[in-house]
Specification:
One of its GO terms (molecular function) is acyltransferase activity. This protein is mostly helical. The chain contains 16 helices and no strands. The chain has one domain. Helix content is 70%, strand content 0%. The protein is globular. The N terminus and C terminus are likely disordered.
Length: 393
Amino acid sequence: MRSSDDRVYLAPVDHLRAAAAVLVVLYHGCQVLGARLQGREFRPAVDWPHSVNPAWTLVFEGHTAVALFMVLSGFVFTVGARGRPVRYGRFLGNRALRVYPLYLLVALLGLATQVSLPTWRELLGVVTFAAPAQPYGGVFWTLAVEMQFYLVFPLLNRLLTERGPGALLRLLAAVAVLRALVWLSSPVAEPHTVALYLGLAGRIDQFLLGMLAAWAYLRHRERLRAGRRVLLPVAGALALGLAWWFNQVRGFVSDSPLKLVWGTAEGAVWALVVLVYVAGGPSRGVLSRAVARLGEVSFSVYLTHFMVLAVLGEYAAGGPIRALVPAGTPPPAAALWLTLLVALPSTLAVSWLTYHAVELPFLRLRRPYTAPGVETPRPRQHAAAGGEERITS
C-alpha cells in the first residue's frame, strides 16, 4: 500500500494516467458510437474524423494517449529503480501480477462471446497477447508492446545507470536508422508502416524518452519546477499542435514515411509534458485527489471501456440513450456527448469495481524488485523505498 507521502508524490503521475485513460475512452467512444448512430460499424480508412479545431483533433487522434502511457512506463520504472540494479525475476513477476489478472478476465470473457468453445491455439494466443479478434480486444496490442519493453527494461536501466543518457540517445538514433532501412528495403512501392508503428520497433522510442525524462527529473527537478509556468504551457501546446497536424495529414490511416518519426516526435512531446508536470509537484485539494483516484484505476478503464462501448453501441441508434442528444446533432458531436454522459461514467463505475475486486488483491502480492546499490540523487521529501511497491504503472 502507498503511504501518504508516496500518494503526494504520485499525484501528478496519477493525474496524467487519468488524462490518458479519459482520452482513450473519448477517442474510441467517438469512433464506435459515431458509427453505430449511423447504423454501421466504424471503418478507419473511410470514417476517420477530421477537423481544423485543435480541441476536436485531440479527441480524434486520441490514440496519442497510448504514447503518453508508454512514456509514463519508462519514466515510472526509472524513477522507481533510482539507479539501482533490477532483480529480473521479481520485476517480471511484479509485471505479471500487474497486467495478467484483469487482462485474462477480459480476454477470456471476449472468447466467451463466440458460439464455440475456444481452441488451445486461441487460449495460447490470449496468454501471449496475440488474442484473436473479439469485441473487447481493441487495446490488447499495447499490452504486448508493454510486455516486450518489460523484458528489456532491466538492461536499459543498467545502461542508463552505468553509461548515462548518451547510451539511450545513441540507441534512439540506431533504432531510427534501422527503421528507415526496413522501410526503404520494402519490395512494395508504398511500404506498410503498421508493423513498425504498432510494435516495439516503432514504440521503443517512447519508453526510452520516458526513461530520459526520469533521469532529468531525478537531477534537475528544482530547476524544472522554477520554469514550470513557462515550460508546461509550451509542452501542452506542442502536444495539442502535434495532434492537430497529424489529423490534418490523416497520418493514422496512411502509410506515409512520416510514421517512421511520428512515434519519436510524439514521445518527445509527452516526455516533456511528464517531466515538467511531475517536477512541478502535486496540487492539493479535493479535485486533485479525485483525479488521482481516477488515475489509480486507469488500467481498469483502459481494459473495460470496450465492454461498455459494445453494450452502448447496441442501443445508440435509438431508444432512451439516443434521446439524450438533441435531434439533428451531427454524429461526431452526438457520439462525444453520449461518451461523456453515459460511456465514461459507466466505465468509471465498472473500473472501480474491477480495480478493487480483481487488480488490487494481486497488486498487494508484489515485492520490491531493486537490489542494493548506489542510488541516483532524488528529491529528499519524496523519497520512496521499494521501487515499484511505491511507484507503480
